[in-house]
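Risk register update: the risk of archive-format incompatibility is retired. Evidence:
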Amino acid sequence: MPTPKAANIHNFIKPYVVVSGKKFILKDHDPGDMHHLNSEDKPEAKRLVEESVRMLAELQEVLYAQSSWGLLLIFQAMDAAGKDSTIRHVMSGVNPQGVDGFSFKSPSSEEMSHDFLWRTNRSLPPRGKIGIFNRSYYEEVLVVRVHPELLENQPIPEELRGNTSGGTGSKISKPLNTTSRGMALPS
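Archived output:
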């Protein structure tokens, strides 16, 4: 089980935990937030990361042994933002046999013949394992709002396309909200 030092880590990450997406507004959060850490705090930050990696390895063993839940980590950022190195660094202490990683690029022809959640749903981690999405279905939803013309090549029923003047994707993204809520529930 995690050591008593886990309280330190929980206090450190508390401002970054999103309990409900309904009240979360991305623009209210500074992407350059360093949690009030300065260069002189580097040794303490390094110690917290090492402690967190050890704790994650211990918790992975519990996750596997209980086999009641799967854990999905989604890394979403612009190109060259450090997703790959963050994944390598954070997951450095876990057993690689208990982790599956997936990177989502432009959809293949097979993926285009299904709804946009199909390719991610089939990659969800089973109970007892950790799944990593390097990018995700969120990009699918956001991109079509900015570039509605991308929907023209997809075999989507007309009634689900929505209004192209600012509302594109609203009917399409409804299953996303339902699926995201469902991933948090044990079955």
